[in-house]
């Protein structure tokens, strides 16, 4: 990525930006940078707003019999939601949690039937579905959604809530 601040920017007394720090104003400030995910995390993507377009959340074994999937996403607090898909087997025990309190988390089967839901009942008011036993083999969907916070925050329609979703499965 590249960030550029154009020389039209001035300080409070009208001095132009000295982007290259040579002592003379009037040039752009340019920085090139990369954004990388933490190891083992999946980014939500741009269009995962439905079960059909859910971002796959791969599960990796971290301890014998314990698998974890980690996803990172963001929500517009005006009622946005993101879907993640995960392959599960009958008898798997499932824990789903968000790293921050985003609003709610739901679990659906492949037919779109809601199986479990939570709204801030985990530690530190995080969203947390605990101890769910998977009834059948298949692809399940995890939906993470925001509450409508427009009434409680100024300009909240421009605020983005970042979150991480964790899915733990015991074989």
Task: Please tag this protein with its features.
171 residues, mainly beta, six-stranded mixed β-sheet
Q: Overall pLDDT, averaged?
A: 81
Oligomeric category: single chain
Structural class: mainly beta
Number of E strands:
13
Q: In DSSP terms, counting alpha (H) and pi (I) runs of 4 or more, how many helices?
A: 0
Notes on the protein architecture:
There is one protein chain. The chain has 171 residues and is mainly beta. It has strands at residues 2-5, 29-32, 41-43, 55-56, 60-63, 66-75, 81-88, 93-98, 103-108, 114-118, 128-133, 138-146, 161-170. Strands 3, 5, 6, 8, 11 and 13 form a six-stranded mixed β-sheet that branches. β5 (60-63) and β6 (66-75) form a beta hairpin. The radius of gyration is 21 Å and the shape is elongated. The two termini are 41 Å apart.
């Amino acid at each position: 990525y590249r960030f550029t601040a154009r020389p039209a920017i001035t300080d409070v007394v009208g001095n132009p930006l000295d982007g290259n720090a040579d002592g003379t104003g009037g040039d752009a400030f340019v920085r090139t940078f990369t954004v990388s995910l933490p190891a083992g995390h999946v980014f939500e993507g741009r269009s995962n707003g439905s079960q059909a377009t859910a971002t796959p959340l791969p599960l990796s074994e971290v301890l014998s019999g314990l698998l974890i999937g980690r996803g990172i996403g963001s929500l517009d607090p005006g009622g946005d939601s993101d879907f993640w898909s995960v392959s599960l087997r009958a008898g798997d025990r499932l824990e789903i949690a968000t790293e921050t309190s985003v609003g709610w988390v739901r679990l659906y089967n492949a037919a779109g039937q809601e199986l479990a839901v939570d709204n801030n009942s985990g530690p530190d008011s995080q969203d947390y579905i605990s101890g769910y036993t998977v009834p059948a083999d298949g692809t399940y969907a995890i939906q993470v959604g925001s509450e409508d916070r427009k009434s409680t925050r100024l300009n909240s329609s421009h605020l983005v809530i970042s979150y991480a979703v964790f899915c733990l499965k015991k074989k």
